[in-house]
Amino acid sequence: MQFFLKFKDYGWLARFFGECFEYLYKHGEIKFVERERSERKLPRGLWSLSRYLTKKLSYSEIGLRINIAKKQGVSLLIITFLIKSCARSYDEVQGQVDDMYARFKRSRGVVIENFGMKTIYIFHKSEKALAPHEFARLLKSEFADDISTSHADANLYALFRGDYLLKHDRIGAPYYTLRGEEYKFRG
Predict the structure, then answer these.
(1) From which domain of life does this come (predicted)?
(2) pTM of whole model > 0.70?
């Protein structure tokens, strides 16, 4: 399973990619190849950045120019890699995300699954902060994963410690939201 992000403003996304290219170029991580013709007002280096990401992330082909031109979803893996590699903030990107969707990829008949990605998907789609028992129920209904509330609580706490989730303490069970989506908690 792979997650993709749709953005509110693809002009912003083009600038984000351009700034990431400039950062990586300045730090000697990437070389600029004078291959691109700029027919649109896109930043330089998108082709070079696409080639760099293809090699680093072991993708078959990444076409950032096509993603921008056709306003397609961009892999969450690509965005997270660029945020970490280019010293950007998650909050900056989160404010521009319009939607997140999952695409299932089959490899030898088995659906590739990742608990952390399922968690991010459930919290992003939720309209409110979730307690561990609510998260466990949604995980079962969405992905047919049956886990106990204590197991869900332990996993959510680990994601909280890793700065992916925010914990809102309340009498009874704690409530969690994605970082940047604190508004979903109505204390």
Answers:
(1) Archaea
(2) no
